[in-house]
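Reproducibility note. Readers wishing to regenerate the assembly model reported in the main text can use the exact inputs given here. Chain order matters: entities are listed in the order in which they were concatenated for prediction.
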Amino acid sequence: MKKKLLIINGPGLSDLSNFNEFGHDNLTLEKVQKKCLETCDSLGISVDFCQTDDQAELSNYLLKASKEFDALIINPAAYSNAASLDPDLYASNIEAMANQKKPVIEVHIANIFQKGVNINSPIKASEGNVGFVSGFGIHSYDLAIRAVNKQLSQKS
Amino acid sequence: MNIFVINGPNINLLGSREPEIYGHDTLDSISKECIEQGLKDGNNVKFMQSNYEGEIVEWIQSAIKEKIDVIVINAAAYTHTSIAIHDALKSFPGLKIELHISNPHLRESFRHISFVSPAVDAVVAGLGADGYSHVIELLADLQRS
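Running the prediction on these inputs yields the following structure tokens for the assembly.
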């Protein structure tokens, strides 16, 4: 059976034009989605690709991830810095996934540690391993998908 | 493409050092995998490790002189202390990638600050020893696109 990967894109990621200033020109979420689907297809993984600006919806996706999917790639974007966010709820969902030994990788388009990016800090899960890929533009997703595939193939 | 993979202190102990965190792969096996992955894509990988901060700084400086295309750096514990490595990386004009086997942000708070991260283009962490070969493979993709 095909392994199921969920890719979640958090708040603000419907418009990627503000990544131009970091050298990731002319990116759109559609392009990212297309590339992810191609990569997953070539590796024989089934993938759901979603984006939401809504916290409740994001929580639902996270819950779904741990129940229905084998792996999670998440670009939390502004989520981990949002004033109204519940970081514990966020972290506990990520941990639930990681504790089931299901691969979880946090991705970012730009290098979030470079001056001026300052959009967030990495996921603060206290248990389980969470991978981290930041700064490769559209290729951050590609690297994460390959890493997920490798981890899933080592598990089975 | 010419690629330097520079590794910092204690990475020579891989395989025996806290395997629950760093895994069972040895530095030799990772090095071999990186070089082979590079060859597959027609890229030349030089894999290095030092326990000495100054030596790492000199390797970065030699990368500038030799016009190396990419530095992949796992500065290990110097990540969290070395302004000298930060400065050296700043002067390297090529592509710079920070790599860690574990995810430092999920570990002790003294590992949460990285002087390397703001000086590089991209950061990869927590993908285990496989992170190295994934990055080398991705570099070939980047070159093609």
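We highlight two features of this model. Chain A has one domain: 4-155. Helices of chain A lie at 29-43, 55-68, 87-99, 139-155.
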